[in-house]
Amino acid sequence: MATDAKADSHQDAHAAAKAVAGGEVSPDSRTWAIRIGSMLVPLGHAAAQNVVTVLGLRFLTDNLAISATVAGFMFAATKVYDALTDPLIGTWSDRSRTRWGRRLPFLFAGGIAMPLGLALLFGTPDGMSILAAQALVMLGLLFHATGFTLLTIPGFAMVIEASTDPYERTKLMSFRTYGNAIGTLIGTTLPAWLLTIFGSGRDAHLLMSVIVGSIVFAAIMLAVRLLLRAPRTVPPAGSRSALKIIRQWKLTWDNLPFRVLAITHVFLLFGTAIGTASLAYFTRYVLQSGDFALGTYFAAATVGTVGTMPIWVRLSKSFDKKYCYMVAMAMFGAIHLTWLAAGPNESDLAIMARAAMSGVAGGGMILNAYALLSDAIRYDFLHSGERREGSFAGFTTLLDKLSAAAALALMGVFLSSMGYNSSSTGTALAQGESALWAITLCVSVFPAIAMLAAIAVLSRYNLDPEQLRRQEEGS
User: pTM to 2 decimals?
Assistant: First the structure.
């Protein structure tokens, strides 16, 4: 045992020495720990994020009697705050030096903040005034948003640091996609099913949030444990000045392949955010089905994502990831357009078929989006010799969240302008034809238009994967 410990210590010291010199350490026998840890991080933040995305806006309008406009702007304001902190957290994690490495302390803090945010958001007690409820909700949203940033940016940056092989990074992205799919299942299907059991009141929402939050906390703490000895790099000394940080942000945005992908992601997130948030309204008011059906929809979507992930991984290796990404977005937009023809008599088979195909498309979008982003970020390192993974992740999520903020604000204003009626009981009130038509447009036409715009932007992406591979081999 002493010999093994000494060998491990020597290996870690050698890895650290290479990192300080600007080199990298490829995954070794710890590969599976890295993969599982990489999967658990998005599992945790996807679970916490999706329960808010799917049920948060509806909880405010149907349980707290907050108007759709005010609720939409509350979510949007939080997203703007969240977006503005992303580059700061990203650059901070790039320049951080701790005995846990650059990224893990951020993951640990995020694993505490997100569950706390869930409990505050859905923990508004009965009898509280609307103003007090709004203040508690905002506090919960701020904790939740901060935790999300702490998890997503360092978590994504760690994956890029873990391997010099583009295909291994794609495999790691597939594990992240698996984690995202399972987290989405936990954050969408489980809460909807729990509300079916516990009821639709405020106490039921609080209990649901505590259960989901406990799962998130456990997943992130286990991920931190598994990633403790993952390959990592060390930032150069004396690189923390404000001028260097500002320069780093500028150089990040000057990376053309990254810039194209980031703008593409803006439209992608706009479409998925408004499409996902409106599904909770669409199933209740247009399809006239309960939350069990909503949860089952997301379960089928998760099956579609997980079941076809090996196919997407193989396709991304055999064909250009850019075109795989385009196909996935086109599929997602086309599926959402079919909701225009849906109504109260829609068969369960038709709904589940949409769910499964939406999951297939979602898996392709997530995998190829982040695989291409990892290539663009790797391209930056090969040309500059500087480590800016956190800054790239920060800019990506900044633009993502601004687009999601715009989507939720637009949705709230649009629903209110079309006559949507809010409630404090948690039950469905009668909605007029114009409100029902607004909900239908949000779940169908708006996501499809967003996907079309994303495809148009992505067509300008021109980073050759073979050229990148040759540069890897020559570095």
Answer: 0.71
